[in-house]
Write a structure and sequence with these properties.
Distance between the termini: 35 Å
CATH topology of the largest domain: Rossmann fold
Order of helices and strands: EEEEHEHEHHEHEHEEEHEHHHHH
CATH superfamily of the largest domain: NAD(P)-binding Rossmann-like Domain
CATH architecture of the largest domain: 3-Layer(aba) Sandwich
CATH class of the largest domain: Alpha Beta
Shape: globular
Radius of gyration: 19 Å
Structural class: alpha/beta
Number of domains: 2
Number of helices: 12
Length: 348
């Protein structure tokens, strides 16, 4: 399939395919939009079943980064990279050095960072061959705790808006995915008095959450039908779809996973079901906000102050959706697109 005819191709400025024979690196970098500034987005490493799945993922993720940066009022555009490979078996220093060389070829139009399947150490290897990388030791570091904090604050805002409660104490939350972000989120929720239900494909992580946080554990396929107030998807995307929506008993969906809706129609279905959906690229902006402050003057308190604005943006989305009788996902898109148009007018 041609990239131009792909359903998720959305006027991307540049999509580049890279291959390095010596390391076996197969990577795709997608730059969606640079109207607000250079494209900033993480590098994901995943064993895609075929090239088309990798293309679809990088196109969807890069577009979401454009909207995420706009909604977080950051001077960056949207981009993303994917490396086709198993992060548990295929990682080498030379592979990431090769990837860094490819990033360098883009001359600063794309800045990379950590994502699913990559780590701070991987960013160090990339930095050996390009300066266009953030989330490094001594800089902003691992962005996961800040992503989790943004999700936590978003859940509080959604609970206030939908359930009219100022506290999370006693609120029931189901968390799907116990990776860096998901587990950090669970710790914040547990400290706030939330009744946790969790799942993950890693049984050890579930056992750890049960013992440390007092969480109830369920099988991955059972998390959608959990009898909770909030469902927090913190794994991979497209988990809100025709198969899962009929199972939902929650009143709110707010999590860190990217591209949670399999299609825009699913956002409309949630609205009709009176399930308040907190758009993912608003909720999970904390990590992007964190790495955007990378530099010698990095200050975590400034990052936290910026993150506090996520709640205001989310409430703006909720109010617009209610006023215009539309889905929250469509409302978020409208606000982001207006901010992009404003930036474009300033350039012209």
């Amino acid at each position: 399939m041609s990239v131009f005819s792909a359903s998720d191709f959305d006027h991307h400025e540049k999509v580049t395919f890279f291959y390095d024979k010596e390391t076996g690196l197969k990577a795709i970098i997608a730059i969606h939009n640079t109207i607000r500034g250079p494209a900033l987005g993480g590098c994901r490493m995943w064993p895609y079943v075929d090239d088309q799945h990798a293309i679809t993922d990088v196109l969807r993720l890069s577009r979401a980064m454009t909207y995420k940066a706009a909604m977080a009022n950051l001077p960056f555009g949207g981009g993303k990279a994917v490396i086709i490979g198993d992060s548990h078996k295929d990682k080498t220093r030379e592979l990431f050095r090769a990837f860094g060389k490819f990033v360098e070829q883009l001359n600063g139009r794309y800045i990379t960072a950590e994502d699913v399947g990559t780590s701070v150490q991987d960013m160090v290897f990339i930095n050996e061959t390009t300066p266009y990388v953030v989330g490094l030791p001594g800089g902003s570091g691992d962005p996961s705790p800040f992503t989790a904090l943004g999700v936590f604050e978003s859940i509080k805002a959604a609970v206030y808006y939908r359930l009219k409660k100022d506290s999370l104490n006693g609120i029931r939350v189901a968390v799907q995915g116990l990776g860096h972000v998901g587990y950090d989120l669970c710790k914040l929720l547990a400290d706030a008095g939330v009744e946790l239900t969790v799942t993950d494909i890693d049984l050890e992580l579930m056992d750890h959450a049960a013992k440390e946080l007092g969480a109830k554990t369920v099988a991955p396929e059972d998390i959608y039908r959990a009898n909770v107030d909030v469902f927090a998807p913190c794994a991979l995307g497209s988990v809100i779809n025709d198969l899962t929506i009929p199972q939902f008993k929650c009143k709110i969906i707010a999590g860190s996973a990217n591209n949670q809706l399999e299609s825009s129609a699913h956002g409309e279905i949630l609205a009709k079901m009176k399930i308040l959906y907190a758009p993912d690229y608003v909720v999970n902006a904390g990590g992007l906000i964190d790495v955007s402050y990378e530099g010698p003057s990095y200050n975590a308190q400034k990052v936290i102050a910026h993150e506090e604005k996520i709640k205001d943006t989310l409430l703006e989305v909720f109010h617009m959706a209610e006023k215009r009788h539309m889905s929250t996902s469509d409302a978020a898109d409208l606000i982001a697109e207006e901010r992009l148009r404003s930036a474009e007018k300033q350039i012209i």
